[in-house]
Amino acid sequence: MKYPYDPAHITRMELANRLFFRLYQCANMLHKTGTRAVEDLGLTTQQWAVLGALSRPEASGGMSVGDLARYLLVSRQNLSGLLSRMERDGHLSSDPDGRDRRSRLITVTKSGQDVWNNHALPRINDYYEQVLADFSIGDITHSLHYMLQLLDNMKRLDGEVSAVDPEEGG
Prior knowledge:
Elements: H1 7-38, H2 45-54, E1 63-64, H3 65-72, H4 76-88, E2 92-97, E3 100-108, H5 110-131, H6 137-157
Antiparallel strand pairs: 1-3, 2-3
């Protein structure tokens, strides 16, 4: 049992508060500065995440909306409007799943592949270079390790059984 007046516990909670506040700030800055990096392509960081998820080799045959929502850790409802806009803009297509007619497979169109590979990725890589300018490969590796550990603990708290696979990227 943790004792609320234990100095070590107080220090731990103060550091935890600072850590999670910084994560919150980082997420907000990612949306702001990340979107700025790709906005003239008509993309947002959410659309960047969808195109990135669907452009992975393991998603070459498309992904169901449910699988994509689980991969991105968002609700189907939040993803639905985003996918509709991206389909309207010609980046994605939504077709019936041959294995399950009730499900739809989301795939990147040729136009979406062009936007992702030839326009967005170079800007995203430049964004990463700028944001990670003072990070060594070791720093990035350690940061990724701790972020995956936090994510795994949060997923456990959320009731999900499986851990995040570090090979999935994201």
